[in-house]
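Tutorial, part two.
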Amino acid sequence: MDLTSYFNSLPKIDLLYNKYATFSHFNGNPYKLITGYEVFKNSELDPFMRQFVIDQGKCIVMPNMLNSEVIGFVVRSISQKQFRNYTKCNYIPYGAGVNKKQFYQPWIIVESALDSDFLRTFYPFVIATNGVSVSANCLNFIKGTCSTCYCAFDNDDAGENAFHNLCYKHSGKDFHIKRLKPPISLDGKPLKDFGEILDCLHNGNIEDYDYYVSLIKCLMLNV
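Running the prediction step on this input gives:
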């Protein structure tokens, strides 16, 4: 199946259902909408993905791009916090093929596709690992394409433990892993992830959103 043609055939997101839809709306509509109607129109779509969309109803589709071609996508349910990944290339992580990168330029790795796309509006080389468990394929890709990697996993126990585990196993003389955390919130508490900043945009708290954006821009100066 030609994923690029299939993705382009999907309808635009019609409402600002959540922060995923809001991010897409304010950034050139990179995401699409998929429903049971669309999956029934194409029998080539993976049967597990088809069933997921049918069970969940409306879902948001986030494309993994290689230059201008779609090589996979992440599907996020609108009604529940449920995800499914579909790819034709397990060796290229989500977000890695968007911009051309030199070896000396660091990667930033995040847990989710949304965080990857959001941070890439401030720094061009951000990839998503789809959770704190980094696959062997993803890790080999990262180590083979940079000497420094910034781990921007969620600011919780799982994210911290995953960061320390990666450092213990893989950080060394020729490959360095550093921590990158979301900014402190306005009430003095650390944000859990960068996606929380998009909650401000979705909820119309534009002053708070602009404040966090200014902090992210400062963070990116040190990468």
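The radius of gyration is 17 Å. In part three we will examine how such features are distributed along the chain.
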